[in-house]
DNA sequence: GACGACATACCGACCAGTTGGTATGTTCGG
DNA sequence: CCGAACATACCAACTGGTCGGTATGTCGTC
């Protein structure tokens, strides 16, 4: 939970601004009802602000979506950065730790653990280039972090393997996003969890580990 | 492309009904603009029919979505049933053939190769139980076909393995759906294709094959 | 008293769905 | 074989409500 990146310092002990409340509302409501299915009025109501406040801070609904993608990036970046798996010295353990962590945080209701970016880009990829671009950028930058550890792990353990660390990092995101879609279809997280376990086993295979077939 | 299941025979050389034209339009337009982002007027315009025709055949927009899921099932079932990979005698070859086939048919524009069900369920899982249910049913029945071959292949090649064929079949769909989401984010099919290759390699691993790391 | 941060009230466009109608069968008694 | 009764398939115009967005007012702070 990053405090808002205020350019101007100040606001001592001030309550959350309408802007932050709207971004929070977007993160939750859009994941529940979809982007097009969420009206500006819905967001204002969820945030407890008026429409005037909305258009004071955002030029348009699309503008909010782009800002929400950035907001999502700030939040999740800080969240993953603070996760315990970073303590591992072996980069492969960090990668596997990340995957285990992703599996563990699948809890609560669907609108809480699914990905805002996957939801938005699925709807807006063709109708809003700005939203598509924002989602791609955030997803790719998240994947790049994993790609770093994967590249280091590859260099350390299987330097001669032919697979590409960046591509494999993106594949992990494919499995996550697909897990979310299927979790929505099944209305439960079980399939997403088992899919992440399959992903884990695959990566262990790629590193020559013989996975414990629990 | 199943001809419409007319209860009454007749209609010799009759042109496509408004109903079929609307279902076709739904399959294409919804994949492009999303479910909530597609208006009834959009569909009527794309189908070249009037709104009266729409509500003559469908009780509501939601009703059309449910029918479109079934229509999608009829179409894709026939499509995959006619695919060449069924000729293989070894069920594992059929599974790998299916995966290769899925990779090959990723062509053209995104709205042509992505999955209608994944698009709809992502938006409607919370707001429309009927649509969610329809999508789940169709996806699961498709996965069940793959699960059959996977179960046979497991029995034949690795009877003592601990993984579950049905779960693995669903995992293949997770990768497909995730590939589509990421393809939309990247605005191109490359990542979906490479992800399907990763999936292929994983399954080869599970069957003890040493995949050619092409 | 100026300005940023909101609130209130409102607009035209568009939305899903309805209505009342027509054109074209289909059925079946006589 | 005919024609009244009914059914199906569709159309054009319309309705009430919701949409994204705007114009203007108010209030607290520097």
Structure in words:
The structure is a homodimer of 214-residue chains. By secondary structure, the first copy, chain A, is mostly helical. Helix content of chain A is 69%, strand content 0%. Chain A is built from ten helices and no strands. Chain A has helices at residues 18-33, 40-47, 51-57, 61-81, 91-104, 110-113, 116-124, 129-157, 165-186, 190-206. In chain A, helix 1 (18-33) packs across helix 2, helix 5 (91-104) runs antiparallel to helix 10 (190-206) and helix 9 (165-186) packs antiparallel against helix 10. The first copy, chain A, is elongated and about 60 Å long. The interface between A and B is large, with 52 and 52 residues. Chain B binds a DNA duplex (30 and 30 nucleotides) through helix 3.
Strands, helices and their partners?
2 copies of one chain form a homodimer.
Chain A: H1 18-33, H2 40-47, H3 51-57, H4 61-81, H5 91-104, H6 110-113, H7 116-124, H8 129-157, H9 165-186, H10 190-206
Helix pairs in contact in A: 1-2, 1-4, 4-8, 5-8, 5-10, 7-8, 8-9, 9-10
Chain B binds a DNA duplex (30 and 30 nucleotides) through helix 3.
Structural class of chain A: mainly alpha
Average the pLDDT over all residues of chain A and give the rounded result: 90
Unreliable stretches covering 5 or more consecutive residues of chain A: 1-14
Report the order of strands and helices of chain A. HHHHHHHHHH
Which oligomeric state applies?
Answer: homodimer
Instruction: Note the gap between the termini of chain A.
Output: 35 Å
Major sheet summary line of chain A = none
Judging from the principal axes of the Cα atoms, what is the shape of chain A?
A: elongated
| Number of E-type strands of chain A | 0
Bin the strand percentage of chain A: under 5%
Rg of Cα set of chain A? 19 Å
Largest interface: A-B, 52 and 52 residues
What fraction, in percent, of the residue positions of chain A are helical? 55-70%
Query: With helices defined by DSSP (H or I, 4 residues minimum), what is the helix count of chain A?
Result: 10
């Amino acid at each position: 939970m990053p405090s808002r990146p205020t350019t101007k310092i100040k606001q001592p002990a001030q309550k959350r601004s309408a802007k932050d409340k709207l971004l929070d509302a977007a993160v939750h409501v859009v994941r529940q009802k979809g982007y097009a299915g969420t009206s500006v009025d819905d967001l204002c109501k969820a945030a407890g602000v008026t429409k005037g406040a909305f258009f004071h801070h955002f030029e348009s609904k699309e503008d909010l979506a782009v800002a929400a993608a950035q907001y999502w990036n700030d939040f999740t970046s800080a969240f993953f950065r603070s996760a315990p798996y970073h303590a591992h010295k072996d980069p492969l353990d960090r990668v596997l730790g990340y995957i285990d962590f992703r599996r563990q945080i699948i809890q609560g209701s669907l609108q809480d653990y699914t990905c805002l970016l996957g939801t938005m880009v699925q709807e807006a990829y063709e109708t809003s280039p700005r939203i598509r671009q924002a989602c791609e950028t955030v997803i790719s930058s998240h994947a790049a972090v994993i790609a770093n550890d994967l590249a280091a792990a590859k260099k350390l353990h299987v330097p001669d393997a032919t697979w590409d660390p960046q591509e494999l990092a993106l594949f992990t995101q494919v499995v996550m996003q697909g897990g979310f879609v299927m979790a929505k279809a099944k209305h439960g997280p079980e399939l997403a969890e088992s899919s992440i376990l399959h992903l884990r086993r695959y990566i262990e295979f790629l590193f020559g580990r013989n996975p414990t077939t629990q």
